[in-house]
Amino acid sequence: MGLGRITEGRVPTPSFSVDHVVIFVEDLGRASDDYAALGFTIVPGGVHADGLTHNALIPFADGRYLELLALTATWKRRVFRALARSGLDRVLTRRSPLLGRALRRIRSGGGLADFALACSPLGGVVGAGEIDGPVTGGRVRPDGQEVSWRLAFPRAAVLPFLIEDVTARHLRVPPNVTHANGAAGVQALTVATGSFDRSVASYQALLGREPFETVAPIPRSLAVEFRLETVAIRILAPIGPTHPLRAPLAQRGDGLYGVVLRADRAANLDPARAHRALITLAKS
C-alpha cells in the first residue's frame, strides 16, 4: 500500500522539493550566537502559533534554510523532561505534531531533528491513512507579520514531514541572505536507518520514483539516494555490529543524520558549536 498518492485526476499529482532542516536547540539565543560564530547569518523567526516554540532561520540562496527550533521557556523544558521520564510526554506535544516528532528524536539532547519537503498540492498525499493531516501551522514574525502554512506527517518515522504555504513563501523564508562562511544551499541530506529495505520502500512510495545507486559516505554501509531537484537524500544503513551509525540509531532512532551544504569552501563544522548537528560545507 502506498502513502496516499492520488492519481485518479481529482487532485493533481504532487510535486516535492526539500524545504528546510530542523535543528532542535536548548536555548535559541545561545544557539543563534553559536551559529553566527560559525559564519551564518541568523534571521529571527518568531513565536509559533501554539506558543510552545520559537525559531530562528538560516536561509540560503537556493531558497532552502536551516531552522533553529527551541521551546519558548525554561520551565517548559523542565516539564517536558519530567513528562518524558514518566512516559507522558504526549501531554506536552499533543498541540504540536511537529514538536512531538522532534522531541521523540532528541530526548537525549539537541541536534538534527527533522526535515521538511515542500509539497504541492498537499491534498495529493493525504487521506489514505498513512499520512496524518493536514494541520494548520503558523508564527508571528518579530515585525508582527503573520505567516501560515499547512503540514502533514507521514507515520513512518524515517520520512520527512510535508509543508505547503498558505501565505506567500517569501514571508516565511527571507530571500537574498548571504553567509560569511560561503554557504549557499543544501546539497545533500543523510538519513540513517536500521531497516534499509523498508525505509527505501517508504521513500519510493511517497516520492513516486526509484532511487539511484550511490557511494556510501560511511564505509560498510548500505546506501541509495533519491534526487529532488539539486538535493540528494541519501538513505544509509549500517552493516555489522560495530558500525558508527549503531550508536546514534540506538539513541535517536531512524531519521536525519547529517547535512551537506553547498559552499565556496570545504569544512566540517564543529558539532559542539553547531549544537550536536553534523553539518559539512562542500565546495561547489
From TrEMBL:
Domain named Glyoxalase-like: residues: 18-207
Superkingdom to which the source organism belongs: Bacteria
PANTHER family: BLL2707 PROTEIN, GLYOXALASE-LIKE DOMAIN-CONTAINING PROTEIN
UniProt name for this protein: VOC family protein
Organism of this sequence: Candidatus Segetimicrobium genomatis
